[in-house]
Amino acid sequence: MMKATAKGVKVYEQWSHAYVRDHDGVVLWKSNDRSPFADVLGDFLAFGYISQLSYDNTVVAKEEQDMLAVEAYLNRKPSGEQLFERNANRY
Prior knowledge:
Elements: H1 6-15, E1 18-20, E2 27-29, H2 38-46, H3 52-74, H4 80-88
Antiparallel strand pairs: 1-2
Helix pairs in contact: 2-3
């Protein structure tokens, strides 16, 4: 029987907030359908919650998610309030 450690309890708690998508094995958070960071994925792999294939697929998916997020941020249109504040700060 494996002895419970603080790290093991933390990883178990994190895992309870994640799931593996059926069609490609990508790990996602239940709260926002985004993939966890690599350190968390490494913990999931080390503690046996996911396979190496799931880890690898998730790393690729995370890179794609991050690129799309940066692209969306760079292409965002400022709100009316943001435009007003930007103009107000000029004087």
